[in-house]
Amino acid sequence: MTITALTTYRSLEFPNLLWLEAETADGVVGLGETFYAAEAVEAYIHANLAPIVLGMSAVDIEAVHYRTRPYIGFVAASTELRARSALDIALWDVLGKLTGQPISVLLGGRIRSQIPVYNTCAGNQYVRGTKLGTTQNFGIASSGTDQNYEDLDRFLNDPVGLAGSLLDMGIDSMKIWPFDFAAESTQGQFISPAELDKALAPFKAIKKEYGDRMQISAELHGMWNLSESLIICQALDEIGMRWIEDPVFLTNPTGIQELKRTVRSRIAMGETRGGADDFKIFLDTGALSLLILDIGWCGGLTEARRCAALAGAYLTPVAAHDCNGPVVLSASVHFCQATPNAYVQEIVRAFYYGWYAEIVTELPPIVDGAISAPEGPGLGMELLPDFKVRESTLSRTTRYQMT
Ligand SMILES: [Mg+2]
Predict the structure, then answer these.
(1) What's the CA-to-centroid distance between 398 and ligand 1, angstroms?
(2) I want to staple 58 with a disulfide (CB 3.0 to 4.6 A). Which of 88, 94, 146, 242 is the partner?
């Protein structure tokens, strides 16, 4: 079971994604993934993680998790934590392949066979570039249609058509972020009545047409100061949101504590933070209605399990984040199948029905608005062999040196 090699893959076509394969002496290979600053994560894996974990047993996942806890770069979804997350997912995949069991079974067994999805209404090119956190990385393509799922263009220009297209697929929950343009123009310091009306229009139009048949969530991306966020959240309260996500940036608990005093909607956040100890600070406020976990950022499946148990003790559900890549999506679905307080699984249908299939052999099937894990042991998917050898794919391997 000795871990004998770590191989990373990153792609010039998908420059934010980083894949990791952990290979054992028995020839079993496990797959992991993370997102953001892929080159930095790659460097950290080879320079800092490899010397620790090469030579360790791949099935001693807790030991690897413990020994790779960084001294710095520990709080929030840092480069160090993202690298550790990718490694952790890969080791659960190894364990699955060694035992012939899906990860959901290894996590304790399934409490549900499938989990409902909601659609994050991004388009195919959303956050494809490395200019992160700006509307310039929205990758908006015009003339969105049902065929190409340019859902960001559609929520701005054809929200009712977009909602109808999702309902036709059996998806009755969606998330949009029309406030970001106004936020960027004032650095989140002021929203004018006209900008507020413009951003509220898609929500109102969808609710008018479909009522409660479509559940809508608002993503604010942590871009607003407290007073403007409060104005926006109260206006959204009147329309009726499933949840409001990252209404302020999650640097400390003050903002959500203040919002919770008057905002009726569920407040969701957490994807930018990492680890159970970190989440406790925010759960302690009592202001969080939904903890959002990215398994490729929070410390992997090992840490996600702790986060969910902790949230459960606060009577709070967890939702799995997916706006990054197909491997984390599969890990997330296994996690949701085995986690009692899992609430919903995020998907981006433009990714799922688009480029995800260029990268992996299988995807978690979606049927009637619910997703289940792929069949087979471990994650139930591999990187496609031809993706690994594309000219635009860069790989790097560090091997165990027997001394
Ligand atoms: Mg989010």
Answers:
(1) 34
(2) 94
Name residue, tokens 């310091």: 189
Residue 115 CA to ligand 1 center (angstroms) comes to 19
pTM of the model: 0.97
Q: What is the DSSP letter of 291?
A: E
Q: How many CA atoms lie within 13 A of 293 on its CB side?
A: 38
Provide mean pLDDT across the span 250-276.
Answer: 94
Q: Which CATH number fits domain 105-371: 3.40.50.150, 3.20.20.120, 1.10.3720.10, 3.30.565.10?
A: 3.20.20.120
Domain ranges of the chain: 3-100+383-399, 105-371
Q: How far is the CA of 9 from the centre of ligand 1 (A)?
A: 25
Q: How far is the CA of 54 from the centre of ligand 1 (A)?
A: 34
How much is the average pLDDT of 243-265? 95
For residue 246, give Cα distances in angstroms to 223, 250, 292: 8, 7, 10
98 Cα to the center of ligand 1, angstroms: 34
